[in-house]
Every structure is written in C-alpha cells, then in structure tokens.
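INFO  loader      accepted 1 record
INFO  loader      residues=225
INFO  predictor   begin
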Amino acid sequence: GRGVEVAGTARDGLEALAMAREVRPDVILMDISMPRCDGLAATRLIKAELPEIKIVVLTAVDADGSVFEAVKSGASGYVLKDVDADELMEMLSALEKGEVAFSPGLTARILEEFTRLGALLEAGDSRRPRDPAPDGDRAGAERREDDDRRTEAEPMLMPRQVQVLRLVASGMSYKEVGRALFISERTVKYHMRQILDQLHLQNRSQALAYAARMRINRSADPFLS
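INFO  predictor   done
INFO  writer      dumping tokens
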C-alpha cells in the first residue's frame, strides 16, 4: 500500500547488486550488516553502475562512522531500524523530491562532522610552509593563496549557486535559504539540482561534503557573513 511496491529482497550485497541490475528499482533499503558483501560495499557497487538508484542504508547501529561512510558511499539516507512505518514513508516521499532521508538527529551530526573535517583541512593548510611574497607582504600572499584555493574550489558554479550551497551547508533548510536570498523554495531546489549535476554529485549529503572540503561554507560574501 501507500504507493510503494516491494520489488524484491536480497540475502546479501552481491544478490542486491544482481537484483538492482534486473529490477532497476527507484529506491533500495540496504541493510548495513550482510554476509559476503556488506551494505556499504554493495552501495558503492550499485551507485557506480546504476547511479540513478537511490539507496537508504538501514541499520540498528547509530554509529557516526557508519553514517559518514554511508554518505561517502553514495547513500541518500541512513535510517535506524526502529523507525515507524509512517516516518519511513515520509522519508521515502522526501527522496522523490530530491531530499535526503536521515533518522532524527543524524543530519545535525553530519553537518558537525563536515564542519570538523573542513576545520582540519584548514589547519593542515595553515601548517604548510609558504614562500614569502616578493614584496614581503606575507598577509597579502596568504590572502591571494586563499583566493586561489576558492577559485579552484568553485570552477563550475555560478555566484548564485555558490550562495545557495554555502547557506545549505550552514544548516539552513531550502525554505530558509529562499528567505535569505529573496527567492522561492522551488528556485532553491532548482539551483541545488543544477549544483549536483554540474559537480557530478548524487545527493545533498555529498554536496555538503563538497562544500566542507572546498571551504565553500566559509563565507567571503559580506551579505552572507
């Protein structure tokens, strides 16, 4: 019922891959713990071959490491097995709209982890030896280096897309981003779809990881600071 049809079940990750090839489902609920080939490995295999299929990792373990590995593997969601049926249906409906499906509390933790990783990358950059500027202006050289890094990080995005991604990466909902930029929520979703296409990313979670890695979540725009 509820507009959802179960197309099949698999006993392990390799069967899941074979069934995905045959059935081409819209969504796969992937158990993280399976014999022969676990859910994360199966997710990577399926997304590499059939990127249009959305995968939600289903697990009894609320472990940060597994959540982040699932996102990096291409999963569009991470749901605990104790989720009730109505909540699961809402999450699947959100997937159809291009959103992600995470059990309550996990989205905030993912954002925190991406922010932490971004800070670690920044700290690593700050420890690298830098050549002194010819005119002795080290601060100016560092500013130029940061500008160069930002330019490399945003090679394919238009200024408006960078603004949208930066605000989404800060934790805002699409509706809040729309209010901040004086555009509709529908326009924000359009920009996010364009961002995913242009950066060859699968979902919003990967876009957040990209923003943290490329330091797009550090605003250089006075309007957004």
